[in-house]
């Protein structure tokens, strides 16, 4: 899936003088390397739901999976808009990342296999997935796989302090 580069801006109100915008390529690398991310969804009654999970970055976007009977899957069925975050839990140093977007279910067998391979490469054989019924077969049943199509993302640098915003063209 080919995407054009996002529009990158820095908001100098929220950073050190002279801080530069974080390049999108750097943000992607950091997100791809993160062991854990936090997914925020909205329950059908409008209440928020946040949970930690594993993610992989492939073809310009983060991907997540969740059991078909889990709260996340029910929330995504009702409202596909999400926020995925990761970063360093420290005041000084690191880069916190926030990706706002729309969760799109992945069912194509070739894409699913590429994602299953990416999960195992990143997290080891403990996270090996076989394909079944348009998702990942696991010990606890079927896991649905989603691509988070970014609409807006933010990078919060903490050495120096900075706030970068990336806006993506409509798909």
TrEMBL record:
From what superkingdom does this record's organism come?
Answer: Bacteria
Q: What is this protein called?
A: Pyridoxamine 5'-phosphate oxidase family protein
Residue ranges of region Disordered?
A: 1-21
Q: Which UniProt keywords apply?
A: Oxidoreductase
The Pyridoxamine 5'-phosphate oxidase N-terminal domain extends over 27-126
Q: Note the Pfam families from the entry.
A: PNPOx_N
- UniProt lists compositionally biased (Basic and acidic residues) regions at 1-15
Reply yes or no: does the keyword Magnesium apply: no
The species this protein was found in = Pseudonocardia yunnanensis
**Which regions span the lipid bilayer?**
none
The reply on keyword Oxidoreductase is: yes
